[in-house]
Write a structure and sequence with these properties.
homodimer, 344 residues, alpha/beta, Isopropylmalate Dehydrogenase, 2 domains, ten-stranded mixed beta sheet, two-stranded antiparallel sheet, 12 helices, globular, binds 3-isopropylmalic acid, oxidoreductase (chains A, B), magnesium ion binding (chains A, B), NAD (chains A, B), Isopropylmalate_DH (chains A, B)
């Protein structure tokens, strides 16, 4: 089983190290035969070979069983001709990873970590299903110095396939999809809403409602418990999933999975590269470890090992081990070691 | 002094009634000579004359000293050829109202209303300066059934003029502008960032930082106290200002002002038309009354009367009068009457 590792930039390498060590431990113990292969990606790849997504990295990803990504980006490359983010968008697009799954919840017993009042946060458990290869992210752009444009495009087919993912996920969870758009203004949102309605007809057991993105942003703070699955387009998904991520206490806790029609899936923490704390061994590896658990379950079909890793991770948090983002002084490496201790 | 009143749809008319009654009381008492002129707008205007922004309404607005708007929209017109929202966008555009000011804060003593923990919410006081006549809202659209597109456009000039508004406001407040964009992906955001940097050079006393919109959505929940003025483009401003609005307890509490280079300004609560509770006399008129206070201060240059109205409004809230959105059973009309009682 070949797992491609893209540590990337900033805190990417250090959180990746902890996650991979967890996977390695499980592989050893259960004789799963994981082989890890590290490749340059993002800003690190720009520095190494002038390209955020080198051909060799892309080729390795295509032939992988699963891909693990740390984080990309940083001010160092702000003025670069090709930015690290272009590598990430290029990889998502090249592998056809159109569906991005971003779960967030408030862990029982950890309500104190949330910026929300306990009664608002309690029980919140939301999955954002974000379209990942369309919309404003991939439309034509122009920048003539004095005027710039970005084009947002969606086709029926693009909306259909992501809607199916959301309805299927909802069927396995709370049975409810909230589709988020701005159909009172945007043409792409009107198409989005029409197509989502059509797809919904094929899932009579899943309830569907629609919300405008501004109202959704509000409801995610005021009443996150009302949501089960949020289905939305690329940019809205970027914003709402980040916003949602803090309800559990820190964006540092959350993992994500990206999938295409077939081919390898990609897993990454949803936090960024946090260049200001890179290399200090104070980043929170929980999001990376949660991503590793998703890799086990969704990427490799190993739900049992995934549950073990998730339990060990949750235990460490419940036991009060806290990295700096949660006001503690646990180290990134120390946190990872604690997870592995509980795994053993 | 001619004030054009556009009650609009849903709860628009009932909250407008309370706000206008407050203005009327002040006009009587201080002999300000306000004349109110009501005009059809939004869905109500579609029903009355087939057009959400009738020519006569637009003409009246052009000749006004200030414009007050209730709310527009509702499912009733979801399938209409021209939607109520088109009237709002048309009016903003026709009057050149490019700057939308949306203040939100946690009122001292009312921290219990916020979904955020008291220590997170305490002292938060943010002004969103939203560009209102550009971006995805006003670019070309196509919808050919199977594929739809929306174009996002910004010019240097459009960014410059809204940036000046933000820096001037920051100079009168906390002295800090946070410009929000998605410059790691969008061409319009790269232009936005360049131009904002250029304008910032003219305001050496105001600090500037930049945030990506996803990070900003997160920080507005986790640490709203870190912001003073948020400067952002049309769609991001729509999302972030709605999200921000709940930190004080309810979107129903907040007013907004929209201005152009010259000409009359427009004032409206930032909540929507809430068709589900329209006509029940349970809507919160506080946002409309706060908008009326902004009308007095910014639209008519009457800061003293504005302060009186704001104080009366705050007093009613501090005294514990709560409409349904805040868990109480005060009526819309009753809340308005209480504000006027304290004004007398
Ligand atoms: C780094 C950036 C391009 C990316 C995105 O906007 O998709 C990130 O914010 C994310 O959410 O994965
Ligand atoms: C009604 C709608 C078109 C409008 C907008 O998106 O601008 C509203 O949400 C607002 O924020 O004023």
């Amino acid at each position: 089983t070949k797992i491609i590792i893209l540590p990337g930039d900033g805190i990417g390498p250090e959180v990746t190290r902890e996650a991979v060590a967890c996977l390695d431990l499980l592989s050893d113990h259960f004789d799963l035969g994981f082989r890890f292969e590290e490749h340059p990606f993002g800003g690190a790849a720009i520095d190494a070979c002038g390209d955020p997504l080198p051909e060799s990295t892309l080729k390795a990803c295509r032939n992988a069983d699963a891909i693990f990504l740390g984080a990309v980006g940083g001010p160092k490359w702000d003025r670069a001709e090709k930015r690290p983010e272009a590598g990430l968008l290029g990889l998502r697009s090249a592998l056809g990873l159109f569906a991005n799954l971003r779960p967030a919840r408030v862990i029982e017993g950890l309500e104190d970590l949330s910026p929300l009042k306990a009664k608002v946060a309690a029980g919140a458990d939301v999955l954002v299903v974000r379209e990942l290869t369309g919309g404003l992210y991939f439309g034509a752009r122009t920048d003539e110095g004095e005027v710039a444009t970005d084009l947002c495009t969606y086709s029926r087919e693009e909306v259909e396939r992501i809607a199916h993912v959301a309805f299927r996920e909802a069927g396995r969870r709370g049975g409810k999809v909230t589709s988020v758009d701005k159909a009172n203004v945007l043409a792409t949102s009107k198409l989005w809403r029409r197509v989502v309605e059509d797809v919904a007809a094929q899932y009579p057991d899943v309830a569907l409602d629609h919300m405008y993105v501004d109202a959704a942003a509000m409801a995610l703070v005021a009443a996150p418990g009302r949501f089960d699955v949020i289905l939305t387009e690329n940019l809205f998904g970027d914003i709402l999933s980040d916003q949602l991520s803090v309800i559990g206490g820190s964006i540092g806790l959350l993992g994500s999975a990206s999938r295409g029609e077939d081919g390898p899936m990609m897993f990454e923490p949803i936090h960024g590269s946090a260049p200001d704390i890179a290399g200090l061994d104070i980043a929170n590896p929980a999001g990376a470890i949660a991503s590793a658990a998703m890799l086990l379950e969704l990427g490799l079909g190993l739900p049992e090992q995934a549950a073990m890793l998730n339990n060990a991770l949750e235990q460490v948090l419940v036991d009060g081990v806290r990295t700096a983002d949660l006001g503690g002084d646990a180290r990134c490496s120390g946190f990872g070691a604690q997870v592995r201790e509980r795994l053993e």
